[in-house]
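Final report, closing paragraph on structural work. Over the funding period we assembled a curated collection of sequence-structure pairs, and we close with a single example.
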Amino acid sequence: MGVLIVGALFGTGALLWFWATRPAICDDANVRSERFGYCITAPPGWSLAEPIAGQIPADQLFRPEGDTTLMIQAIETGRDLPAFADDVRRLQTDNGLDTVEMRTLTVAGVDALEWDATLGSSGAIRARTVVFERDGVAWRLQFADSAKAFDAHVGDLARMLRSWQFR
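Its predicted structure, as stored:
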């Protein structure tokens, strides 16, 4: 009986130590959005722009030495992920973007869809769109860059997505 009590005390102590020493959510992030309730770690060279207001508010990050941007929106749509993705793709094609097949991925433990697009026949601008849904909120991330620099910079988006945390 005494061994069980000692074991229980040791186990309880270990759990309390683990809980007390784990980092708090977003402690290691360098981008935090109070408005949308997320945080990420942006690679060196990225800056957070002033929040964009308007009909659909957005957070925006950019690389000051180039044309690379990342726009983040969170919208309460009541739509599921496939329906929201179809809405976004339709909006893109209506605005002259040529989209390619969707791929699946996971962002912070939730299912997501991503696809690439180019702007019109010139293809001067390339974009990667990532959409996911959590707790009734649809998220749209739009990474855009010049076609020449896209492949060199799109890895930054993957790193930011791996660091994504909901608050």
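The longest strand covers residues 110-119. Residues 50 and 60 are 7 Å apart (CA to CA). We thank the funder for supporting this effort.
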